[in-house]
Amino acid sequence: MFKQNHHIILASKSPRRQELLKGIGVQFDIETRNVEENYSDDLDVYQVPVFLSELKSGPFLNEKYSGSVVITSDTVVILEGSVLGKPKTEKEAVLMVLSLSGKTHEVVTGVSLLIGGVSHSFSSVTTVTFDAVTLAEAEYYVKEFQPMDKAGSYGIQEWIGYTKIAKIEGCYYNVMGLPLRDLYNKLISLNVISLTA
Known about the structure:
seven-stranded mixed sheet; 31% helix; 29% strand
């Protein structure tokens, strides 16, 4: 039997994250806060997603949420040691897509579960290899699919993912923005949810 032992809040506007969390059977409310996603250049690139996910949980550090589990997350693309965030313009989005052409990059998602004022955080890494992408293909994808809200300017669940991803190692859903297997295991280990025969 599936049992949910805590009230869960997903602090994300992302319809993809909302859909993914529903997929593992938990019930949750959605509450979001605007947070400036700034981090120091000295921070190791692999620590950036967890740092940002914990930053997003900051506004929920008050008594009102003490009985809830607040889930925050952040996803970045790391290419050759540099973080690719969300593009600010269509031109930047096209250049980002072209920078991934024929190369292997990593998608890292940081997840924080805020429980009773304590943050339980982890990150998951997926390695993705792209086929070559032409300028025409990159421009078509950006114009038609408007990936302005996506790290690295692409969504694996869209046209570019269907046509240009040659290889993936790790969790597919992590590339969409939520590492479901790791999140499920964390929810179980923290007794947020439980499953019995």
